[in-house]
Amino acid sequence: MRRLFFRLPVRLPIRAAALATLALLAAACSPRYDWRTILSNDGHYAALYPGKPTSAARDVAIAGRKLPMTMEASRIDDTLFAVGVVTLPADDAALRREALDAMQAGLVANLGAHPDAPARTRAVTVMSAAQPPVALEGVEVTVAGVSPQDQSPRRLTARLVGSGARVYQAVVLESGAAARDTRQAEHVEQFLTGFHPF
By the 8 A CB rule, do 42 and 166 touch? Predict the structure, then answer.
């Protein structure tokens, strides 16, 4: 897997020592986002992660089959940024739809109880990493829930899309205080819009 890293510039005040000290104190109290583009040749996508991701692989049950799934994820404090890729046995539109529906149902079910806030979905366009980019039809899912393990709040935002013999889920899972913090929305959007299948 080849990885390309592009770091966003950080501008700090140079002349005002008081402002520099204040900025350093603020940075110490907030998560550090070190955005970089990761090109996954195995997963056939490019994504903008807030930190260096780790990889895992396992089989998942989808549409009555066990299919291989790879996952790359990066955690910043109580927020997980992840891309999961399921490889299908063929480039089949009906199978892609079935797999995407199963992945969406699994994400919502795994979140935990969410009686007061049912999952919301909306159609989105996900641009491919091809040149020129190709517009792919996808769905965005947003749901808030409660962890069955520790009863802490959780919030999930995911984009699901299929292309060829692969289906993708780009997921942001916020836990605890992060799930209540509306300031996180910028980071969520940056990650989801920075995801591009090949």
Answer: no
